[in-house]
Amino acid sequence: QVQFVESGGGLVQEGGSLRLSCADSRDRGIFGDNAIGWYRQAPGKQREFVARISRSGSTVYTDSVKGRFTISRDSAKNSVYLQMNSVKPEDTAVYYCNVLVGEVPVSAWGQGTQVTVSS
């Protein structure tokens, strides 16, 4: 079972930037073989899709983050990143990553990393 470690969250002012990281704690190179997605869950809301990146590097974003967030991967480091620019208070949430089969997250969720945007 893959175990993810998300990091890089914190408190940031509206309009600022953060870079989130996601790694496989067992360092098994699984990221190189699979699509990876970022998700987020705001207080009182369902977890929602944010972005995904395929094995080949193609990317998909939810409409609310297009042009502001960038997902990338470094297979040599078994890591996936989410660069968050021009953040908004509505980006406040716990952010998670997961392995995807098709568009479906298939592994157990990690602890996530908290992002809080102040206005």
Short account of what is shown:
With 119 residues, this protein is mainly beta. The chain is built from no helices and eleven strands.
Word description of this protein:
The chain is mainly beta and 119 residues long. The protein has strands spanning 4-7, 10-13, 18-24, 35-41, 48-53, 59-61, 69-74, 79-84, 93-101, 104-105, 113-118. The chain has no helices and eleven strands. A hairpin with a 4-residue loop joins strand 7 (69-74) and strand 8. The model has no long low-confidence stretch (mean pLDDT 93). The chain is globular and about 40 Å long. Strands 2, 4, 5, 6, 9, 10 and 11 form a seven-stranded mixed beta sheet that branches. 30% of the residues are buried. It starts with a strand and ends with a strand.
Give the averaged pLDDT, no decimals. Answer: 93
Succession of helices and strands = EEEEEEEEEEE
Our measurement of the CA-to-CA distance between the termini, rounded to an integer number of angstroms, reads: 39 Å
Number of helices: 0
Structural class: mainly beta
Low-confidence stretches: none
Largest sheet: 7 strands, mixed
Shape label: globular
**Roughly how much helix do the residues carry, as a percent range?**
under 10%
| Share of residues in strands | over 45%
| Tally of DSSP β-strands | 11
